[in-house]
Amino acid sequence: MLIVLDPDITPQQKNVILSVLREGNAMFREISDAGQSVIGATGTAGHDLSFFESLPGVARVVPVETAFKLVSRQLHPADTRVQVADVSVGGERIVVIAGPCAVESRDQVMAIAKEVRRYGAVLFRGGAFKPRTSPYSFQGMGEEGLKILAEVKQVYGMPVVTEITTPAQADLVMKYVDVVQVGARNMQNFELLKSVGRLGKPVLLKRGLSATIEEWLMSAEYILAEGNENVILCERGIRTFEPYTRNTLDLSAIPVIKKLTHLPVIIDPSHATGSREKVSPMARAAIAAGADGLMIEVHNNPDQATSDGAQSLYPEQFGQLMRDLYVIAPLVDKQVDFGYLDKAKTVKHMAKAAGGKGRRAAFLGDVGSFSHKACAQFFGDQVEPLPVDSFRGLFEAVKSEVCDFGVVPLENSLAGSVHENYDLLLEYDLRIVGEITLRIKHNLIGHPGARVDDVRSIYSHPQVFQQCRQFLERHGDWDLVSVTDTARAVRHIKERGDFAEAAIAGKDAAELFGMAVLEESIETNPRNFTRFVVIGRESMVGNGQKQKSSIIFSTGNQPGALFQVLKIFAENHVNLVKLESRPIHGKPWEYMFYVDLEADVEAPAFSGVLAQLEGAVEYLKVLGSY
Ligand code: PEP
Ligand code: MN
Predict the structure, then answer these.
(1) Does ligand 1 lie within 6 Å of residue 271's CB atom?
(2) Which of 247, 249, 271, 307 to probe ligand 1 with, by most ligand atoms within 8 A of CB?
(3) Domain holding 380: CATH number?
């Protein structure tokens, strides 16, 4: 059991608890977890739980049936996010760690770091102390290698991960790296576990070659018991009788881990499979199965690698994999963020320029709405989300510097464009600085205990009614009531307490308000996506490549006017991904054209094309590149 103590417990009250345990011969230890003081005890010292709960100074008693206590979800129901500099492992954004098996030379490491950073890795890996099966194999560069890793962090802004093989290396890894890795062969090296527990740095704990999930979690327990709860679990394949793969990747560990513990879990498909062609399929499957991230070996010259060349991806293969993951992640409510590190840097700069004041982003509606989710997935917890009541209010808030950013839905794959926002983009002198796509799953949400047959009226956003048209047609007698956003719809029915009222919204909103999902996934087609753009007053800085731009233009009213403009894109090999027209207010039957194109129109290389465009249009506005 876990005895959670009141924050203001007196020393005398604590002594009473400890002496009861001592006299009852219970095994116990004091631990502190996320700021709360806890006594973990096995055996109940001859008393039942309610006895301990009644002792002064005890906040609550949590019975934990499993052998692991601190890592268990019973103690800590919410997911733990392990913060590594600007990167949060276990949040909405997938964390990909990439780099060579071993640090071999400065040139090799810097070249690989440049590539993996460009393709979207957010943490860098490289072994300086290599635990090799043979004593005659390359054993690693030691401190020289750690210095090179520290340089990667300085030059490319990627925090670094390296393996520690003995407590004697503790001072060195403390000095140079951000995450210490405990390798598969050391998973049950208990002295090493205690030592990394005391270091206080985030720990990446690999699963042992033949360890059960419980043994693996018990090893994590050692680290948490030393007061360090920043543990990232890493499945890297286990030994089976199968020789075609180096190990057997246990992807089923992901849902098991998610259920048993609050700690994040990542997958290492490189050591799991042992050969390059198996890495990407397993990586894709891992993300689809709910992993928080991946650790992938990448080498620019794998044939010459000192270790694990055969399983190392070429940088371009890694880039291709990242593009695939970018598509897969939203299907399971996550994101791959190619701007992760640059965005964090920009937001920090802005905060610094504002005298350390936190940055804010406006979104429409209440917490729990899809706009709120888009905001959280785009920024992580780097900005404070600010709810607003209307899209105009959102643009005003950014313009008047009440906040720095705004998250604006532009288009849904079932219901089409959000026209109001197209007009506001034209009207306001703000820039598009990023975009994010969410998969939208709608649910019929009602009071716990209510049945679909009880329902008479439905609250939601008008766009949502369009996205669920087929479902609603089957219930033609229901009244549809429009509100600003999905979360507000759920809050509204909760407050009114009428079983005949239901809302359509995401699962987050149902959980937030303690309501029940009466019917799941009622959108007309499961391929339902909404694209949001993020607006700001100035472009994001950073060395990430900008792949897309948005512009608005109008042409004269003569034959071939639009053709003349489109010809410029064709002749310059610029791919257009969207073309939409909107009426110009006050000029009946005249239109503005909104174009998204695959190019960075603000790059110097595009200035020639831009000049040609200016010559061919009546009006041109560059909304931004991102
Ligand atoms: C490694 O990641 O470099 C490594 C040696 O992995 P494992 O401990 O999983 O074999
Ligand atoms: Mn390796």
Answers:
(1) yes
(2) 271
(3) 3.40.190.10
Distance CA 174, CA 602 (A): 42
CA 132 to chain centroid, in Å, comes to: 33
- Structural domain of 181: 82-332
Instruction: Say how many domains are in the chain.
Output: 5
Among 332, 366, 384, the domain-final residue is: 332
Cα–Cα distance between 566 and 613 in angstroms, integer?
9
Per-residue confidence (pLDDT) for residue 34, from 0 to 100 = 57
Q: Name, in order, each residue with C-beta under 8 angstroms of 87's C-beta and a sequence gap of 6 or more.
A: 95, 122, 123, 159, 340, 341, 344
Catalytic residues: 530, 532
Same structural domain for residues 426 and 461?
Answer: no
Q: Is the CB of 207 under 6 A from ligand 1?
A: no
Q: What is the pLDDT of residues 391-432, one digit of tens each?
A: 999 999 999 999 999 999 999 999 999 999 999 999 999 999
Report whether residue 236 contacts ligand 1, using a CB cutoff of 6 Å.
Answer: yes
For 561-591, how does the pLDDT look when each residue is reduced to its tens digit (9 = 90+)?
A: 999 999 999 999 999 999 999 999 898 888 9
pTM recorded for the entire structure: 0.91
- Has residue 541 been placed in a domain? no
> What is the C-alpha to C-alpha distance for residues 315 and 298, in angstroms, rounded to an integer?
6
